[in-house]
Amino acid sequence: MGNSALKAHLETAQKTGVFQLTGKGLSEFPEDLQKLSSNLRTIDLSNNKIELLPPLIEKFSFLKSLSLNNNKLTALPEELCKLKKLETLHLNGNHLRQLPAAFGQLSALKTLSLSGNQLRTVPTQLSGLRQLDVVDLSKNQIQNVPDTVGELQAIELNLNQNQISQISVQISHCPRLKVLRLEENCLELSMLPQSILSDSQISLLAVEGNLFEIKKLRELEGYDKYMERFTATKKKFA
């Protein structure tokens, strides 16, 4: 992509606060963007070939939304965690194995998409994010859901298409969790904590495609309580 094209995009971004350059085969984060670090509210560089997010990302202190879906990121810099206004972070379809240690400092984060990466566990850092609403960790290599999940503030947690065979009973203590998606994992019915049904806020539990028949779920103690929440929620949205 030529400099003149990039320049035109930068001029537009200066006026709109939005920089969008997708599917252009970019191999690196455009350094020229830092000239607009105080203007930009949205950056979308999805569908490129970016391997590294440079430390200069910390300069974008007003950034609200960052999308880097379908790139080649293997790690994220600690500097990303300084973006105190960031509300939306889309990183689907990369090669991420873990999140930076300071990730819990992204205090405004509401939506986090990490579908199609190489995570092996639910990152403990997520429990520190107080504004988090939606977390998508589908299509990773997660095998278990640890105790720290009990502090997760999310309303929706998507764990579809992982390799989960164990879930901490702490998941039923999530204060705001309403939607839990666990489709196409490796769960035996005995490994699904019954407290999810009897003693949680969860009103939509999606567990199709595991190692048990769905009708067996209905025989579990607490299923009636779960159905009460499920029905009440459906009425709300009807």
From TrEMBL:
Keywords: Leucine-rich repeat, Repeat. This is Leucine-rich repeat-containing protein 57. The keyword Ribonucleoprotein does not apply. InterPro entries: Leu-rich_rpt (IPR001611), Leu-rich_rpt_typical-subtyp (IPR003591), LRR_dom_sf (IPR032675), LRR_domain-containing (IPR050216). Pfam families: LRR_8. The keyword Repeat applies. GO terms for cellular component: cytoplasm. The gene is Lrrc57.
